[in-house]
């Protein structure tokens, strides 16, 4: 492959990634048939949705997606993976609180009361998935940050990291589909497709790895 | 159509209790559903009590409106 | 079945009210098969007993339950809707507080001025009681956090939870039960569970609020005078049905009560000072009528920008139409005071307006059970009523003091709570007889059993078509009222027995529809009887005040043969 050609492929992958994980969700959002609310509320929702799609993107920005990312240096990919991971995990940690932020600016139930009402409903399926996903996500962040200090080999860490992210994405997707206010059929299909492929890639990697080790 | 849309519902049931005219019920999936829209008096109590602001209400009534003159 | 349809067609062809009958068939189907989703056999019967049963979770019920409990009674608190989120209480934002320290008038002067505005229609004992007790109630509310949120469920729950008073919500009470001439309890059904509840109590306090014909624009569609009609059915005297609340609604989207009140529902409550007025009777209805309907406007000087139309309801001297209301409102903790309230036009109500937004409702506190003393007691031993369910005539047949309705419910709830607790302390409980329980249970659920029948929504809409027009309910004339009465009697006799219900929600509608029909009959008959015009009752054929014959309230009660009877009770006397 020539240098120019490689550059083109890289550009193409970039555009493709941005297209799938930002433009398509954004488009799906704008086509959805749900009430538009205030600027603040919609901004918060969009940020949450974007962060969620970045979480799916994490699967594609890792070694399990090596074949597609061939033109890139893996170190560079991982740099992006880490950077995006820390930023958007950081944002999503606050998502349960963001949900009640608009209540500070409008009459009705107070933000505190709204939050305790949410907490007292964590046993309901959609929120339960959200809660477990949220805890797993924090665990992902923490185990990544303290990777060097953890008493495990890099290989085990990767497996732990992979399993955690699998559990996380699976439950988070269910949570989003069940509770999200912007969930249209199109949105749900998009999420199922993207996280489905991500999860499948991970599982395939593990199966390949384990069979190749044995042979 | 009065109470118009519920999305982002967490199924807490507060709106069901709150609605004075019993317009909303939880469905079999545990989500709030607009069951009797014709009885909505467009008072917005459900919306104001909902912890996640899931309810949208429009000012039109879904059945003919009888007033004293027109 | 065919028979009834024919009857309906016959009426619409023969009656002078063909237009109304046509109105009635708008949108909603009438007679039809009943696809019941549950059977009567699935209903479970539950029994409860207590000293004092408080019915209704608004401002009056709150204080009734608390004060009865604090006076040592075992209280049970039951409501059709949620505590602080049903009835009219959730929407009232101004509460009157008479603070002797900085009041502009003494209590005597206050009572005098209210009586002047009310043209004698107020019961001075209750007017005085309001002023005397309001501050204490406001102070308690402040302690519970009432003034800190536009939503009242939390602050109302606080004192109830602290006292561990059992509270049952979403139970529609349909019957009061009398045994041996005394109150013995009540019965009703849950709209969530397949349950019927029988309450055995030494004393019952009705805090069920007022009601209307599920009108458009005033958020009272859950109130259908249930308490009044239940009490009437067991022999209680009822009053105040000829008065009219004259609140308007916006012409555009008249049914949108939230939008019609500007941002008032979003505001936190605050207290109001003395400011006596003569508001929201039927001036506007009269002006719309003689002005040929058309687009009514709310201007700064009231309807049609103060352009005066000759004749119509009379105002006492010195109480000219002042709009919009809300002066004298004192900000709570420096916050913006709510505008409007029950004086003047609702905030934000500029532009075209229509009448009938609160159709079926009288002036707050003027209609309901007749009190036999200053303790909110009815003529049935052990039965009390407070707030909008008590015909205390606290303000008379016209709105006089802004914020006094909410305050009055609090004050009377507390008075009734203490009185009922005292009564129950010296009374034996009256056992509920098995036969009565069985009859009531089968009556409550009969509409579920019906294989076909009229839908309550259709009958309600028919009733609205008959009653709500300006020329029937507001600008009254003998001939029209008689005609309307014929329709209402028809509904009572030949439709009410055939109401169908497919589920518990519709069953509630059936009982509400029943109460509205009886209320309509009361309103028409009382209005026919009062051959004068005063405050919010206006007769085209008797436009003058008649002090000689009509310095009296009208009481309504059920005769031995079930007929509706009427009597006069002189102002400032007890029945
Ligand atoms: C839009 C609006 C604005 C207002 N603004 C003001 C104001 O600013 N200031 C003011 O002083 N007043 C105002 N009022 C009037 C005031 O709200 C009422 O007078 C007062 O709240 C009445 O309180 P209550 O407890 O007597 O009755 P409600 O608050 O009406 O309560 C009645 C209760 O009884 C229950 N109930 C009814 N039927 C049954 C049944 N069959 N079985 C069981 N329970 C039943 C209901 O669920 C409800 O809980 C306003 C009213 C409205 C509608
Ligand atoms: C928060 C900061 C994160 C850091 C620092 C981080 C870091 C890493 C590193 C170093 C790898 C190993 C890459 C390799 O060796 O090939 C990796 C792999 C991976 N990460 Fe992350 N990650 C983070 C967050 C996430 C999140 C939130 C997800 C999921 C949504 C995720 C999903 C994955 C997946 C699926 C792999 C591939 C696993 C494997 O190769 O076995 N990561 N990550
Ligand atoms: C304790 C944890 C969580 C709670 C209490 C919670 C709560 C909620 C609630 C109440 C909603 C619906 C309201 C709304 O859509 O605005 C929602 C939607 C959503 N949540 Fe969560 N959540 C949690 C965890 C998560 C996690 C970990 C993610 C991560 C990916 C996530 C992503 C989303 C997304 C994308 C939406 C949809 C937003 C939309 O459709 O506009 N949530 N969450
Ligand atoms: S209050 Fe809101 S979150 Fe709770 S059930 Fe109703 S719509 Fe759903
Ligand atoms: S707006 Fe009022 S009446 Fe309509 S559903 Fe909500 S609470 Fe019920």
Proportion of β residues of chain C? 15-25%
Mean pLDDT of chain A: 91
CATH arch. level architecture of the largest domain in chain C: 3-Layer(bba) Sandwich
* Helical proportion of chain C, percent range: 25-40%
The largest sheet of chain C is: 7 strands, mixed
Biggest interface between protein chains, with counts per chain? Answer: B-C, 30 and 54 residues
Rg calc of chain C: 22 Å
* Overall outline of chain A: globular
Main sheet summary of chain A: none
How many domains make up the 3D coordinates of chain C? 2
Strand content of chain A: under 5%
CATH class of the largest domain in chain C: Alpha Beta
What is the count of structural domains of chain A?
A: 1
Quaternary organisation:
heterotrimer
Give a brief rundown of this model:
The complex is a heterotrimer of chains A (215), B (70) and C (575). With 215 residues, chain A is mainly alpha-helical.
Which features would summarize this protein structure in a list?
heterotrimer, B: 70 residues, alpha+beta, Alpha-Beta Plaits, two-stranded antiparallel ribbon, two-stranded antiparallel sheet, 2 helices, 14% helix, C: 575 residues, alpha/beta, FAD/NAD(P)-binding domain, 2 domains, seven-stranded mixed sheet, four-stranded antiparallel sheet, 16 helices, 34% helix, globular, binds flavin-adenine dinucleotide, binds protoporphyrin IX containing FE, binds iron/sulfur cluster
Structure report:
The complex is a heterotrimer of chains A (215), B (70) and C (575). Chain A is mainly alpha-helical. In chain A, 75% of the residues lie in helices and 0% in strands. Chain A has one domain (3-214). Chain A has helices spanning 3-31, 39-60, 74-93, 95-98, 111-119, 125-145, 154-179, 185-214. The two termini of chain A are 32 Å apart. Chain B is an alpha+beta fold. Chain B has a two-stranded antiparallel ribbon. A two-stranded antiparallel sheet of chain B has the order 2-3. The model of chain B has no long low-confidence stretch (mean pLDDT 94). Chain C folds into 2 domains: 1-274 and 356-437 and 454-559, FAD/NAD(P)-binding domain (3-Layer(bba) Sandwich); 275-354, no CATH class. In chain C, the strands form 7 sheets. In chain C, strands 2, 3, 5, 6, 7, 8 and 18 form a 7-stranded mixed beta sheet that branches. In chain C, β6 and β7 (182-190) form a beta hairpin. In chain C, α2 runs antiparallel to α12, α5 (124-143) packs across α10 (404-425) and α12 runs antiparallel to α14. The longest helix of chain C is centred in the C-terminal third of the chain and has 26 residues, at 504-529. Chain C is globular. Residues 1-19, 299-307 and 323-344 of chain C have low confidence and may be disordered. Chains B and C meet through α2 of B and α8, α9, α12, α13 and α15 of C.
């Amino acid at each position: 492959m020539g240098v120019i050609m490689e550059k083109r492929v890289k550009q193409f992958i970039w555009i493709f990634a941005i297209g799938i994980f930002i433009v398509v969700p954004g488009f799906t959002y704008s086509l959805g048939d749900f009430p538009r609310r205030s600027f603040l509320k919609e901004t918060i929702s969009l940020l949450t949705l974007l962060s969620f799609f970045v979480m799916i993107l994490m699967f594609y920005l890792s070694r399990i997606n090596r074949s597609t990312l061939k033109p890139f240096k893996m170190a560079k990919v991982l740099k992006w993976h880490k950077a995006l991971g820390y930023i958007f995990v950081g944002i999503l940690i606050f998502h349960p609180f963001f949900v009640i932020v608009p209540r500070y600016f409008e009459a009705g139930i107070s933000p505190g009361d709204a939050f305790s009402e949410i907490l007292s409903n964590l046993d309901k399926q959609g929120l339960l998935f959200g809660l477990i996903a949220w805890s797993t996500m924090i665990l992902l962040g923490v185990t990544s940050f303290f990777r060097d200090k953890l008493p495990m080999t890099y290989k085990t860490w990767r497996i732990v990291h992979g399993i955690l992210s699998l559990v996380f994405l699976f439950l988070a997707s269910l949570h989003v589909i069940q509770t999200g206010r912007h969930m249209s059929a199109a949105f749900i299909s998009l999420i199922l497709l993207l996280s489905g492929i991500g999860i499948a890639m991970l599982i395939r990697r593990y199966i390949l790895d384990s069979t190749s080790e044995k042979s | 159509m009065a109470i118009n849309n519920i999305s982002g519902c967490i199924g807490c049931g507060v709106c069901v209790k709150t609605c004075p005219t019993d317009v909303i019920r939880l469905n079999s999936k545990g989500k709030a559903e607009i069951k009797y829209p014709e009885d909505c008096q467009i008072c917005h109590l459900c919306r104001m009590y909902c912890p996640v602001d899931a309810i949208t209400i429009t000012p039109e009534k879904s059945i003919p409106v009888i007033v004293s003159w027109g | 079945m065919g028979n009834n349809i024919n009857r309906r067609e016959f009426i619409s062809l023969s009656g002078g009210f063909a237009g109304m009958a046509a109105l009635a068939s708008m949108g909603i189907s009438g007679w039809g098969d009943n696809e019941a989703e549950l059977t009567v056999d699935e209903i479970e019967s539950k029994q409860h007993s207590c000293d004092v049963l408080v019915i209704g979770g608004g401002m009056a019920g709150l204080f009734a339950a608390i004060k009865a409990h604090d006076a040592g009674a075992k209280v049970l608190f039951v409501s059709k809707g949620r505590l602080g989120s049903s009835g009219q209480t959730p929407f009232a934002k101004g509460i009157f507080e008479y603070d002797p320290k900085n009041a502009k008038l003494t209590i005597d002067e206050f009572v005098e001025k209210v009586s002047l505005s009310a043209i004698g229609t107020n019961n001075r004992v209750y007017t005085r009681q309001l002023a005397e007790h309001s501050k204490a109630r406001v102070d308690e509310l402040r302690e519970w956090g009432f003034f800190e949120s536009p939503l009242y469920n939390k602050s109302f729950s606080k004192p109830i939870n602290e006292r561990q008073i059992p509270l049952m919500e979403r139970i529609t009470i349909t019957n009061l039960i009398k045994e041996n001439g005394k109150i013995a309890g009540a019965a009703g059904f849950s709209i969530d569970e397949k349950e019927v509840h029988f309450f055995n109590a030494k004393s019952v306090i009705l805090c069920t609020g007022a009601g209307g014909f599920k009108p458009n624009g005033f958020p009272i569609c859950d109130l259908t005078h249930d308490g009044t009609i239940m009490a009437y059915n067991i022999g209680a005297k009822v009053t105040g049905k000829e008065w009219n609340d004259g609140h308007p609604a916006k012409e555009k989207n008249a049914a949108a009560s939230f939008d019609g009140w500007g941002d008032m529902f979003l505001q936190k409550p605050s207290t109001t000072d003395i400011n006596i007025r003569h508001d929201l009777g039927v001036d506007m209805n009269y002006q719309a009528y003689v002005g040929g309907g058309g687009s009514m406007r709310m201007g700064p000087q009231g309807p049609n920008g103060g352009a005066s139309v000759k004749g119509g309801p009379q105002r006492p001297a010195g109480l000219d139409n002042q709009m919009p209301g809300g002066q004298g409102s004192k900000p709570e903790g420096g916050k913006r005071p709510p505008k409007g309230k029950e004086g003047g036009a609702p905030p934000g109500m500029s532009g075209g307006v229509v009448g009938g937004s609160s159709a079926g409702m009288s002036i707050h506190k003027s209609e309901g059970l007749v009190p036999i003393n200053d303790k909110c007691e009815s003529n049935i031993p052990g039965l009390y009523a407070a707030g909008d369910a008590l015909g205390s005539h606290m303000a008379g047949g016209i709105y006089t003091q802004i914020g006094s309705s909410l305050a009055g419910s609090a004050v009377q709830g507390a008075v009734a709570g203490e009185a009922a607790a005292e009564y129950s302390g010296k009374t034996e409980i009256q056992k509920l007889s098995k036969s009565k329980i069985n009859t009531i249970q089968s009556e409550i659920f009969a509409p579920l059993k019906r294989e076909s029948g009229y839908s309550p929504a259709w009958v309600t809409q028919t009733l609205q078509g008959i009653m709500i027009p300006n020329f029937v309910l507001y600008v009254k004339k003998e001939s029209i009222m008689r005609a309307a009465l014929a329709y209402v009697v028809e509904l009572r006799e030949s439709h009410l027995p055939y109401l169908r219900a497919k589920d518990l929600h519709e069953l509630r509608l059936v009982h509400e529809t029943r109460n509205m029909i009886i209320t309509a009959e009361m309103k028409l008959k009382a209005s026919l009887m009062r051959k004068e015009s005063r405050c919010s009752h206006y007769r085209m054929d008797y436009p003058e005040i008649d002090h000689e014959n009509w310095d009296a309230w009208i009481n309504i009660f059920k005769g031995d043969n079930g007929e509706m009877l009427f009597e006069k009770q002189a102002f400032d006397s007890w029945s």
